[in-house]
Amino acid sequence: EDQVTQSPEALRLQEGESSSLNCSYTVSGLRGLFWYRQDPGKGPEFLFTLYSAGEEKEKERLKATLTKKESFLHITAPKPEDSATYLCAVQVSMNYGGSQGNLIFGKGTKLSVKP
Amino acid sequence: EAQVTQNPRYLITVTGKKLTVTCSQNMNHEYMSWYRQDPGLGLRQIYYSMNVEVTDKGDVPEGYKVSRKEKRNFPLILESPSPNQTSLYFCASSSLSYNEQFFGPGTRLTVL
Questions:
Q1: Hey, are the CB atoms on B49 and A103 less than 8 Å from each other?
Q2: A100 to chain B: which residues are within 8 Å by CB?
Q3: Among A102, B57, B73, B84, which is most buried by a count of CB atoms within 10 Å?
Q4: Between the CA atoms of A90, A4, A12 and A15, what dihedral angle is there, to the nearest 10 degrees?
Q5: What angle do CA B43, B63, B33 make, to 5 degrees?
């Protein structure tokens, strides 16, 4: 069964304390991996798409990386405004029975950054 | 402004009373999708549509219907709502080329 697991469930950091969030996946064939940010009471907001192992993408204090089994979202010198829930999702390759339209989300990591 | 809109934003109803949640996007996206979000379960896909008149089941389609008669609209229909459909619902859209999904603001549904 295709599965996405995010860890930790919750993470509390001090402002400036860098850390990483993990997204591990077990799918028969990966077409793409997505990271989203979700603020309380709002819809998820797109951050990154990664397609192949070794790929990296950056945006401000965030950097996403991908291996064959997992993805990391690295947060460098976080600020209180980075506090949110970060969601990971995978799209299974159509060559392995997946559909371009079907996304499988992890349960998210709730990040709190204290000043 | 590029956006996905959902209506209503909040709805309290009773078991068995048919309801429709509307979703509309102004970005000319081919792909649209419905999700529900529940504590401890995360976001789960209900239905999605790759284009007009093309819809497919996601992971939790039971008890829901959708239609895609126009490119911009993708309504979610609950013909006979039950309390286990109490949830936060999100609509999303994207172009098929870029896969970046834009989410609506959410509809909080309570079924008594």
A1: no
A2: 50, 96
A3: A102
A4: -20
A5: 40
Listed residue (B46, B109, B21, B89) closest to A44, CA to CA: B89
Amino acid in position A43? G
Question: Residue A16, CB half-sphere, CA atoms under 13 Å: how many?
Answer: 1
Q: Cis peptide before A44, with omega less than 30 degrees from 0?
A: no
Is B44 within 8 Å of chain A by CB?
yes
| CA dist B92 → A17, B18, B26, B49, B64 (Å) | 33, 22, 12, 10, 16
Chain B touched by A99 (CB under 8 Å): yes
Asked if the Cβ–Cβ distance from B103 to A45 is below 8 Å, we say yes
Task: Confirm or reject contact between B50 and chain A (CB < 8 A).
Answer: yes
Side chain identity at residue A12, one-letter code: R
Contact at CB, A43 and B59, closer than 8 angstroms: no
Q: Count of A–B CB contacts within 8 Å? A: 59
- Pick from A49, A99, A104: CB nearest B100: A49
What confidence tens digit (pLDDT) does each residue in A26-60 have? 987 788 899 999 999 899 999 999 999 999 999 99
A95 pLDDT more than 60: no
Handedness of CA B83, B84, B89, B93 (dihedral sign): negative
